[in-house]
């Protein structure tokens, strides 16, 4: 079923990259500890997407709720940090879909490792951006509630924080493009033939 150049565990690193891209970009205030198995990674991915809010959204929402009591007319304008925090998860979703599209049973470890790096690049940069937007957004909306002229300065700070996530997103896409191996059939000619489960292909 596998060879020295294309071991059977190689796709696991790509799946781990997909999980890292989504889990870290959608990371909340609490952390989910799972065992490093394929089923646990899928469970951790689902939990991170459904049960946990991102830190940026949660932190900014506290400031928005507190400021809206005093200045309810600024409620819509002050929701921008929450929107920008949500965009971070989109970066992770795009990279996860791109990596998942290239998942195949026959993969060299090089492809899996590079795709893992792509997931970590967008995931960890998104995690940092979430903390930056959460802290800066919380302080910004509270200050804007007292002095509305601070809104423009708050937006500039949030934009520069968001750009950090774009850097990780671009690096992840470049890494994923570099992970493709053209001569995979030459590199792994014995995959799914001869021994192992290859006999199933000849039953029909």
TrEMBL record:
Domain of life from the UniProt record: Eukaryota
V-ATPase proteolipid subunit C-like domain: residues covered: 54-99, 116-175
GO CC terms in record: proton-transporting V-type ATPase, V0 domain; vacuolar membrane
Primary site of residence: membrane
Entry keyword Transport: yes
Compartment list: Vacuole membrane
InterPro entries the UniProt entry points to: ATPase_proteolipid_c-like_dom, ATPase_proteolipid_csu, ATPase_proteolipid_su_C_euk, F/V-ATP_Csub_sf
GO MF terms, alphabetically ordered: proton-transporting ATPase activity, rotational mechanism
Membrane topology: Multi-pass membrane protein
CDD domains hit by this protein: ATP-synt_Vo_c_ATP6C_rpt2
Keywords, in A-Z order: Hydrogen ion transport, Ion transport, Membrane, Transmembrane, Transmembrane helix, Transport, Vacuole
Membership in a protein family: Belongs to the V-ATPase proteolipid subunit family.
Biological role stated in the UniProt entry: Proton-conducting pore forming subunit of the V0 complex of vacuolar(H+)-ATPase (V-ATPase), a multisubunit enzyme composed of a peripheral complex (V1) that hydrolyzes ATP and a membrane integral complex (V0) that translocates protons. V-ATPase is responsible for acidifying and maintaining the pH of intracellular compartments.
Quaternary structure note: V-ATPase is a heteromultimeric enzyme composed of a peripheral catalytic V1 complex (components A to H) attached to an integral membrane V0 proton pore complex (components: a, c, c', c'', d, e, f and VOA1). The decameric c-ring forms the proton-conducting pore, and is composed of eight proteolipid subunits c, one subunit c' and one subunit c''.
Descriptive protein name: V-type proton ATPase proteolipid subunit
